[in-house]
Amino acid sequence: MSSVAARLPLARLAFRPFFLLAAAFSVVALLVWLAFWHGIFVLSPRAGMLWWHQHEMLFGVVGAVVSGFLLTAVQTWTGLRGLHGAPLLGLVALWLAARLGLAFPVLPQALVMALDVGFLLIVCAVMAVMVIRAKRWRNLIFVPVLAILAGANLGSHLGVLQGDPELVRQSSYLAVLLVTLIMGVLGGRVIPMFTANRLGLKRRPALPWLEGLALGSLALAVVLQLTRTLGGGLPDSVLALALLVATLAHPLRLIRWQGRATGREPLLWSLHLSYAFVPLGLLLWALGLWGVGRAELGVHAITVGAMGTMMLSMMSRVSLGHTGRPMRCLPGIGVALGLLVAAGLSRSLVLALWPSVTHWVYSLSILLWCLGYAIFLAHYVPILGSPRVDGQDG
Q1: If we measure between CA atoms, which residue out of 22, 7, 12 comes closest to residue 380?
Q2: 1 pLDDT exceeds 60?
Q3: Between the chain's N and C termini, which has fewer beta carbons within 10 Å?
Q4: Taking Cα atoms as reference points, which of 288, 318, 285 lies closest to residue 180?
């Protein structure tokens, strides 16, 4: 263990600082957005509040959680020591510098863009080096996904620099689909395994044709959206068809993971419910592309319902396991996870059915998210900032 990591538990593995910062930043950013939504200007970011909110929740919050999870998981996958000590703190400083540079327009815009995009590129490079050194080719899929995610971030910044709102929008949609693909890959690995192991159930073997259809249709949607982001004149109906195929495949996949048996286990049912938001969001998105409703509702079903709930559930679980604590749900975390599910339903399905209540449902979903993540922080700040209880590294 490096001297920095020995003195500072937060520097021992990437999940510690990034889970903590992502959760705290999401609460602060959403409260700032809530104030703006009600006419109170707390912040004057470089590209305006709408872009700042959209960008920072995707590339700031979700980017930090994905990075913290993958940089921690890759140690398990490869058997090599994960990023820690001074290099980890340097990566954290880069993430913080990008957040501050976007919130307070003092530094040159090109520098802030380089810091922000560079963060994801470094995470991608670290993953690539560790996976290739260990020859764990199965996990190489995350390298191109992270590289394209960095490209989507670059596209969002360039859209602002060039005054091109369509590039901003398409880049954001690309990022949403990329993270959805990450959830699809990781969800298929961990949700059925966690469920079977915890409940003593016999794990059902994966069906190759179903796995290929579910993940292949998502990968195709990513490729199609990448084409649209790069300026390709792809009709909405083509992307909608790929999303519809994924909509049909993922519930079949989810049913096989035995979620009905998880009612007493919040750290399990939350994973199943978060994954259920994926086909819901893809369906609403596809319908919106066909002119039925708004595609934005599908996007928020995924970002709030799927990402928000899965991040909270996985952070709660990973933080216990990697600090040597028993895998039991802490008091109030089940409530917090329920609040995120409610936020996801409010921001998507409720608005699809009753669009007239949009203003107050926006506010409600924000408050539900903030309360859920505040409960997480109340429990996990001391856990993430303390050494492992079993005395091991990490």
Answers
A1: 22
A2: no
A3: N
A4: 285
Q: What is the DSSP string of 12-38?
A: SSTHHHHHHHHHHHHHHHHHHHHHHHT
For 194-233, letters b (16+ CB in 10 Å) and e give bbbeeeeeeeeeeeeeeeebbbebbbbbbebbbbbbeeee
Nearest to 352 by CA among 277, 290, 294, 274: 294
The Cα–Cα gap between 365 and 154 comes to 29
Q: Considering Cα of 144, then 244, then 301, then 229, what sign does the dihedral take?
A: positive
Contact 10, 380 (CB under 8 A): no
| DSSP class per residue in 144-186 | HHHHHHHHHHHHHHHHHHTT-HHHHHHHHHHHHHHHHHHHHHH
Cα–Cα dist 283/65, whole Å = 25
Given this model, what pLDDT does residue 54 score? 96
Q: Mapping DSSP to helix (H, G, I), strand (E, B) and coil, where does residue 235 land?
A: coil
Q: How far apart are CA 109 and CA 74, in angstroms?
A: 33
Sign of the Cα torsion 212, 215, 220, 223 reads: negative
CA atoms within 13 A on the CB side of 78: 24
Q: What is the mean predicted confidence (pLDDT) over 325-335?
A: 93
- Find the angle CA(273)-CA(124)-CA(129) to the nearest 5 degrees: 120
Joined tokens for residue 104: 């307070």
Report the amino acid identity of residue 49.
M
Cα–Cα distance list, 76 to 67, 318, 321 (Å): 15, 12, 12
User: Looking up tokens 């959680």, which residue turns up?
Assistant: 65
Return all residues near 125 (Cβ < 8 A) that are at least 6 apart. none
Per-residue pLDDT tens digits for 268-323: 999 999 999 999 999 999 999 999 989 999 999 999 999 999 999 999 999 999 99
> How far are the Cα atoms of 60, 231, 281, 293, 319 from residue 265, in angstroms, in the given order?
30, 46, 25, 35, 17
